[in-house]
Write a structure and sequence with these properties.
The chain is α/β, with parallel strands linked by helices and about 300 residues long. It is built from ten helices and ten strands.
């Protein structure tokens, strides 16, 4: 029947009109471009507990950083996170931590020592928390930023003893003694990279989420010696911080107006402040992540 109908429509001496086949096309969705997420954790002593809250919030939204870089307190949290501990485990570690386990006083206090804390205890604590794993064998790529005392240059530790690198990154001048690694001395990375955004880029991050926990100069005069020293480092890093944070895709600023760097008792409030700040930044994070995936 079909052949008869078609032939009847053909006039004498003319070629049959070709019939185009009907093809049902289904649009193929464009595959999301893989985006390497970097987390840059800044320094701020006890205020660094806020980093844990940020990590918890990110994980709750399915956002898992691929690269972690930390300065000072950020290197402590960053190392333990890179070792494979999730946000809830980090919170338990933080709440269980006894401040005395990271404090080893150099006695007598007014000896020729260049710091009141030696730092051995902090190094041992970090190594214990990461299972004695060197940096290059951690589960996530990790870097700790310190300052070369001789040159004033920033140094990124990506290999070697994890605890020693974190100790160097956290060696606030006059609080901790400088750390000697391979015949060079290192002090707190906050002097040159308070929030190590550019190092996250150097380690291959496409999207950098920066967490700034530094104290604001206003209203943070401090009375104790340790608080004054921590505030001094924070003041020195203000201008560097402003430049560096401009290179981040998203900046998270936990609200810790009255928390001093020596306030280890406020760790739970700091964690909550980190969670709250990260959740407030979540729409921006997701929007920028999606834009990069679709590029």
């Amino acid at each position: 029947m079909l052949v008869f109908t078609l032939s009847a429509c053909v006039t004498s001496g003319s070629a049959p009109t070709p019939v185009a086949p009907v093809v049902n096309t289904v649009p193929v969705p464009k595959a999301a471009r893989p985006v390497r997420i970097g987390l840059a954790l800044g320094g701020g002593a006890a205020r660094g507990f806020a980093h844990i809250g940020v990590i918890k919030a990110l994980e709750s939204q399915g956002i898992v950083p691929d690269v972690v870089v930390g300065t000072s307190a950020g290197s402590v949290v960053g190392a333990m996170y890179a070792a494979g501990n999730n946000g809830f485990t980090l919170q338990k570690m933080a709440l269980d931590m006894d401040e005395a386990t990271i404090s080893d006083w150099s006695l007598p206090l007014f000896s020729k020592s260049s710091g009141v804390l030696k730092g051995d205890a902090l190094q041992a604590y970090v190594n214990r928390m990461v299972g004695q794993t060197p940096i290059e064998r951690l589960k996530k790529p990790f870097g700790a930023v310190a300052t070369d005392l001789a040159t004033g240059q920033a140094v990124l530790f990506q290999r070697g003893n994890t605890g020693a690198a974190v100790r160097a990154s956290s060696a606030v001048p006059a609080v901790f003694q400088p750390v000697r690694i391979n015949d060079r001395q290192y002090v707190d990375g906050g002097l040159v990279a308070p929030v190590p955004v550019r190092f996250a880029r150097d380690m291959g991050a496409d999207l950098v989420i920066a967490v700034n926990i530094s104290q604001t100069v206003d209203g943070q005069s401090g009375t104790g010696t340790i608080d004054i020293l921590l505030q001094t480092v924070s003041i020195m890093g203000q201008s560097i911080n402003q430049f560096e944070l401009k290179q981040a895709d998203v900046v998270i600023r936990p609200d810790l107006p009255s928390m001093k760097g020596s306030d280890f008792a406020g760790r739970n409030l700091a964690i909550l402040a980190g969670e709250k700040a990260a959740m407030a930044a979540m729409p921006e994070i997701k929007q920028k992540l999606k834009a990069l995936q679709e590029r």
